[in-house]
Specification:
The protein is an alpha+beta fold and 135 residues long. Helices cover 21% and strands 36% of the residues. It has a single domain, classed as 2-Layer Sandwich (Alpha-Beta Plaits). The protein is built from 3 helices and 8 strands, in the order E-H-E-E-E-E-E-E-H-H-E. A hairpin with a 2-residue loop joins strand 5 and strand 6. Helix 1 crosses helix 2.
């Protein structure tokens, strides 16, 4: 997450209607995308705030939005992800999965395949307190 990335992928937009999009739903989507081979991801809120998604990223519900690694985002939420578009689309659409859960709550999920997407949000590596590099 320390450099920008470009490649084929998806944009996945989550819009709420009856019930808010929960942090757990976004986490489920991230996990499905990782399992389907996602190589780089970022999430953007409706106000344009963007956060890179890495192994240590966390998601928490808050009033009127979610907190992603300490930054508050409001909906709708868009995940931009690099990887094989068809495989990732299939993963999100499994029966009882992410798309089904959002639409079951009255929301919408819009998945668009792209030949090229850019993941431009960056994250700084965490300072390790206990682990040391081995050379």
């Amino acid at each position: 997450g320390t450099v920008a990335a470009r490649g084929p992928g998806l944009t996945v937009r989550f819009s709420a209607r009856d019930k808010p999009i929960r942090a757990a739903t976004i986490l489920d989507a991230v996990q499905e995308l990782r399992g389907a081979g996602a190589e780089a991801m970022q999430i953007s809120g409706g106000d344009g705030t963007t956060e890179r998604i890495v192994a240590s990223t966390y998601f928490v519900d808050t009033d009127g939005g979610i907190v992603v690694s300490g930054r508050r985002l409001t909906g709708p939420y868009t995940i931009t992800v690099i990887g094989d578009p068809k495989t990732m689309r299939t993963a999100l659409n499994i029966p009882g999965g992410v798309v089904a859960s959002v639409t079951g709550d009255g929301g919408t999920v819009t998945i668009q395949e792209h030949d090229v997407v850019d993941v431009t949000a960056l994250t700084q590596p965490k300072q390790l307190r206990h682990a040391r590099p081995v050379s």
